[in-house]
Specification:
The complex is a heterodimer of chains A (656) and B (273). With 656 residues, chain A is α/β, with parallel strands linked by helices. Chain A is built from 20 helices and 28 strands. In chain A, strand 20 (451-459) and strand 21 (466-471) form a beta hairpin. Chain B folds into 2 domains: 1-97 and 188-273, Rossmann fold (3-Layer(aba) Sandwich); 111-185, no CATH class. In chain B, helix 7 (202-218) links the parallel strand 9 and strand 10 (222-226). Classes of the chains: A alpha/beta (656), B alpha/beta (273). Chain B: It comes from Rubricella aquisinus.
């Protein structure tokens, strides 16, 4: 394991705060929009508030090593509270603010939280609801007093009052606080973050100061983040990404964390702040692009022409220019003109005029979407990470950005691919343990420190970039032994706006087939524009022209899949368009809209048989659950089409 | 309820209700030959949430219009803050500290949320004509103070995201909230709400109930409201007046009213003569 060299004065959050207060004390550390105006805290003010709150909490009995829950939307007072908890020797445990009281009770109980710091009445109410079951929880704090004035204040405290009391104690107890800060270095726990837990109960991931601060240092240097940078903190505080961006990197680099006025105003606040460093999940970028396109369709003819003309040019030369490749003088000139007329104003509207480094992660992003932002000159990159790694496993360096990889190993991270294709990593950011769960820790992290990601992937030999194929448990083998990665192909299909959902079959079989769902919005729109009448979803889905369009999409995907020798076997030979939309109410999708393969295979077994026995069409009758819980049936005769595939060369046995 | 002390009472949830703020005595209101309100008396106490309920056409809105001075009753007296009220224009009554919202939303559709709520500060603007024209001195200072107050309301009602949106584009539930904001901007002592929850879904009703309780709690505003939804009324109000055919048929705490046979008859529909 490569150890990072972290200077002694910067090896914990309280010390980083003091370091920044000393070095850049008059620069803004936090901003929040309140009462319509951006209010700011300088590093010096934040440092004072941290000390006073820490003293106030020590006075109320916080002991070193105890956990303090932080619950609420991104607010400066909550970020400062996390620093203060660290300073008092405690461990902050940010909790998802939209959890219901029951979920909160589990986490609060599991970490035996001593205090809970809440944003407002909503969160206080939830904690009070379950407080009886939590013998360790003694005090509750709140930031916004609205609606709380008449509550019993014996164990309920206004943060402002606690801070005031702490200020009075600075003279007498300041030395105790200094001792507590001094006692905690790189090996002490920095934070505990609960993973969202798609399977079973959430697990508490213990991350040390070494994990967080070395990761923050490495990643800040990787993208040369500096104190003049600005981020907008709008993703949940309980998510590891926000902890790294808004706490780790912000403290290390000394940049300013801006908090939106309310979750609904995020887009407006983004425009006002114009962050230089920005993170968003792919669906955010997708949504934004869709908005732009819809608004362009309503624009006048000339504006439309201008937009499309210059966007075509940007698509051609923009990404190359961003990567620093040379383009002709004429192209440069035209791009500059486009920047003046189209790209500049558009970026300004999106709030991305100043973005120097932008990241997306979490799921695959459509290449068109990715290229759109890059062609505008926005340096959007991909990274791959997880809570257990303090986020960073791989990321894309400037100049080597592609839609289909997640980049090279982040500084200080070692990668290895197991026999099964699963990706393993090891780094100074690798988590200490799952709290009170040694079995899971042992399952995930081996004695040498290697952690299994649960994702299957491979490293491109010539570039060293990691490509993620699928969840390791979904990856299978075809009959001839070649790799079967359904999600990889499904994602490619879903990048077409006409395809809402796709399910690919082929595990253990000689060839792949697929179910498709049309996207009713996109296909319905197309039908309307082309005067195609339809009476029902089933009719539209089975319309010959729709079939042909989707066939073209499938064939295009086949071509793209065939380019990759390892995955060429996953080309789709036959497909059908389902007569109903896959739905979580019928158990076909999870509540987070992920395909449940087993259930679909059971429900539509006869259709899968038809896909493989060569029949031209199949009659389907399926039970559906309506929103009010009633059951009914939908039925239709589904056409099965053959799609052209690119012939595959001799089967190579996957050799590493 | 007549055994109530003149100094006020304590509600079951521990809120302290003060003395009489508004009292209507033997009000009768006629429109030509139609008697809209017949000999009604009741009082509203400081800090109270007071509801007026009744079937359609019972005279509830007319009653509210009498309280805020829009209608002048032919008989009876209105007492506010211990003084008998003379006939005066609604804007003068607004200055006394009574604000209201309307059954059918009455906002300026083309203006933004912010500007609509700013109009509620009208009674707080005293700068002279020239000062206003030049936007200097008092006018500028007043505008800043008023904007600060309005921003507090926007924060309170959680409508930051629609600050600059023209209200005509907002969904119904939000328009109702903006209207409440405008009424609050006048810093009323007595707030009249005419069917604040009409046409709302369950979730919007819950939100609005929460806001009404919070207004009462945070600003100490006395509230009189008309509402059809019996569940909501019984949940949030301290005392309820029940009207039917222009007459008062019940008055008291929700529990008392709920058990009153006259009220049950009016709601379940008994043949009237």
């Amino acid at each position: 394991m490569t150890d990072v060299d972290v200077p002694a004065g910067r090896d914990s959050f309280p010390r980083l705060m003091a370091y920044n207060a000393d070095r850049i004390g008059d620069q803004p550390a936090f901003r929040v929009k309140e009462y319509g105006i951006w209010q700011s805290w300088t590093w010096a003010e934040a440092h004072k508030e941290m000390r006073h709150l820490a003293l106030g909490m020590m006075d109320l009995g916080l002991q070193p090593g105890e956990h303090v829950a932080i619950i609420g939307n991104n607010r400066p007072e909550l970020y400062i509270a996390m620093y203060a908890v660290s300073a008092a020797g405690g461990v902050p445990v940010p909790i998802y603010q939209d959890s219901v009281a029951e979920e909160m009770a589990y986490v609060l109980d599991h970490c035996s939280a001593r205090f809970a710091i809440c944003q407002d009445q909503e969160q206080v109410d939830k904690v009070l609801d379950v407080k009886e079951r939590l013998p360790n929880l003694t005090e509750i704090f709140y930031g916004d007093p609205r609606g709380l004035r008449k509550y019993d204040h014996t164990h309920l405290h206004d943060l402002k009052i606690v801070i005031e009391r702490g200020e009075e104690m600075e003279g007498g107890n300041g030395a105790d606080l200094d001792a507590r800060i001094a006692a905690r270095g790189l090996d002490e726990t920095c934070v505990m973050l609960y993973t969202s837990g798609t399977t079973g109960r959430p697990k508490g991931v213990v991350l040390s100061n070494r994990n967080i601060i070395s990761t923050a240092k490495n990643s800040s240097e990787f993208d040369s983040l500096r104190e003049s940078d600005n981020v907008l903190a709008y993703l949940p505080m309980a998510w590891v990404g926000d902890f790294i961006f808004s706490m780790g990197q912000a403290a290390w680099s000394g940049f300013c964390v801006n908090c939106p006025e309310s979750p609904d105003t995020m887009q407006m606040n983004l425009r006002e702040i114009g962050p230089t460093y920005f993170f968003a999940p792919p669906r955010f970028f997708e949504g934004l692009l869709t908005n732009v396109m819809i608004r362009m369709e309503d624009a006048g003819k000339f504006k439309q022409w201008l937009f499309h003309h210059f966007m075509a040019h940007a698509k051609r030369v923009g990404p190359a220019m961003l990567d620093g490749e040379s383009v002709s003088g004429g192209d440069k000139l035209k791009y500059a003109l486009g920047n003046l007329l189209v790209y500049g104003p558009l970026k300004n509207t999106l709030g991305m005029s100043r973005v120097r480094v932008g990241y997306t992660a979490g799921e695959a992003i459509g290449p068109e979407i990715f290229d759109f932002y890059r062609s505008l000159g926005i340096n959007l990159k991909q990274l791959y990470g997880q809570t257990e790694a303090s986020v960073f496993i791989t990321q894309q360096p400037d100049g080597q950005v592609r839609a289909d990889t997640v980049g090279v190993a982040s500084p200080g991270v070692e990668l290895k691919i197991a026999e099964s294709g699963e990706v393993y990593y090891r780094s100074s950011g690798t988590f200490v343990e799952y709290y009170k769960n040694p079995e899971s820790t042992a399952d995930t992290k081996d004695p040498e420190g290697w952690v299994a990601t649960g994702d299957a992937g491979f490293i491109e030999p010539d570039t060293g970039h990691l490509r993620i194929i699928d969840r390791a448990k979904d990856v299978g083998k075809m009959a001839d032994g070649s790799l079967f990665a359904p999600k990889y192909v499904e994602n490619k299909l879903k990048f077409f706006p006409n395809i809402l959902e796709a399910v690919v079959f082929g595990n253990g079989r000689d060839r792949c087939t697929a179910f498709l769902n049309i996207d009713l919005t996109a296909v319905g729109n197309w039908a309307e524009r082309n005067n195609i009448a339809y009476a029902s979803y089933q009719e539209l889905a089975q319309h010959p022209q729709v079939q042909s369009t989707l066939q073209a999409h499938v064939e295009e995907v086949n071509k793209s899949v065939a380019e990759d020798p390892m995955l060429a076997g996953c080309q789709i030979h036959r497909f059908l368009i389902l007569h109903k939309q896959l739905d979580a109410d019928d158990g076909e999708l999870t509540r987070t809209q992920k395909v449940r393969r087993r259930i679909i295979e059971e429900r539509y077994g006869d259709l899968i048989i038809a896909l493989y026995d060569g029949s031209e069409s199949v009659f389907a009758k399926t039970e559906v659950t309506y929103e009010d819980g009633r059951k009914g049936f939908v039925s239709a005769t589904l056409e099965i089409r053959d799609a052209a595939v690119v012939p595959v060369q001799t089967q190579q046995v996957a050799a590493e | 309820m007549n055994d109530m002390s003149p100094d006020g009472y304590t509600t079951p949830d521990g809120r302290q209700i003060g003395g009489v703020m508004m009292e209507v005595k033997n009000i009768t209101l006629r429109f030509g030959g139609v008697v809209a309100i017949k000999d009604i008396s009741f009082d509203i106490r400081e800090g109270e949430i007071r509801a007026i309920i009744g079937p359609n056409g019972a005279g509830k809105s007319s009653m509210l219009n009498v309280i805020n001075g829009f209608y002048h009753p032919q008989e009876g007296e209105v007492w506010f803050n211990g003084a008998k009220r003379k006939a005066m224009k609604p804007h003068a009554i607004a200055k006394q500290g009574i604000a209201r919202t309307f059954q059918n939303i009455a906002l300026f559709k083309g203006m933004s949320t912010l500007d609509n709520i700013m109009t509620g500060r009208f009674t707080k603007m005293n700068a002279g004509f020239w000062s206003q024209c030049l936007w200097k001195g008092k006018a500028e200072q007043e505008e800043i103070e008023n904007r600060e107050y309005v921003e507090k309301i926007i924060d309170f009602l959680e409508i930051q995201a629609i600050r600059k949106t023209p209200v005509g584009r907002l969904p119904y539930g939000l328009q109702k909230r903006v209207e409440l904001g405008r009424a609050l901007a006048a810093e009323p002592k007595l707030l009249l709400l005419d069917e604040p929850m009409a046409g709302m879904n369950v979730e919007e009703k819950e939100d609005m109930s929460r806001f009404i309780l919070d207004v009462n709690d945070e600003f100490g505003t006395t509230i009189a409201l008309i509402e059809h939804d019996m569940g909501v009324v019984m949940d949030i109000s301290d005392r309820v007046v029940v009207m039917d055919y222009g007459r008062k048929i019940g008055d008291g705490t929700p529990d008392v009213v709920r058990a009153d046979p006259a009220v049950i008859d009016a709601y379940l529909g008994v043949a009237h003569d």
